[in-house]
Amino acid sequence: MKPIKSTMYSPQEIQLAQELAKGLDDQASVSFYLACTKKYSHRSLRKTLDHVLSIPKTNIRKSRGALFNHLVSQLDEIGQDDFGDDEDTLY
Fold this sequence. Notes:
The protein contains four helices and no strands. It has helices spanning 11-23, 30-39, 42-54, 64-78. By secondary structure, the protein is mostly helical. It is globular, with a radius of gyration of 13 Å. The longest helix has 15 residues, at 64-78. The two termini are 23 Å apart. Mean pLDDT is 83; it is low at 81-91. Helix 3 (42-54) crosses helix 4.
């Protein structure tokens, strides 16, 4: 795996992006996941990841990464506060 430049991202953001990429088996999209860590609360991203991972693979049409991307895009429409995010980063 290629090291990620940490000048723009905190260690927590890098760690979360790598966790998302690994969990979704989508290392090719790590830059997308890094961008997500800047835009969305870490709690919302973790809850979305947990939700995607809880769905049986047979019920996913394209890929877990595609489903995650779709659900994250919904966060803009419904607002992150609907998930009860009090803090931006939870580790």
